[in-house]
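Q: What would this chain look like folded?
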Amino acid sequence: MVITRGEKSLSSKQIHAILARRLWKNDKFNFLESFAMFMGKAQIVEIGLKNILTNKYGYDEERIERWSLGGVLKELRKCGLRQDFVGLMEELKEHRNYIAHELLANDALLRRLTGKSAQRFAWKSLSRSMYLVEYAIVVHDFLFGERRARARGSKSLK
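A: My prediction, written as structure tokens:
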């Protein structure tokens, strides 16, 4: 897979190398710290998507401030943003919703029923979600980060 933006491209090998560096930093976190890190990064992605609506499509920031991630993605799809990118963000939304609303409760229930070793199931879901949020950040920054940085003097989602 190759992601392109104009003349520039990002290969799957390059993406994998970037993700390996980014994910390696998370190895030192325990389960709850990893949960918090995921939720924080998912929130940053959501803010980045709202910035696309305001900066690229002229939406009023106050109007979209309270929109859910699903609402933001619906509008980005209507605006004609790259469907592969919107699809990736929708996958992240599903993971974010599961992590935010079900992961801790499911983990507590499984550990009560089967003991502490059951936490490996929660770690598996959380690890996959951490990979996905990092992937989303890398793709977002490649597609939108530099233009925004030049236009507004701000930084990418890194």
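Residues 147-155 have pLDDT under 50 and may be disordered.
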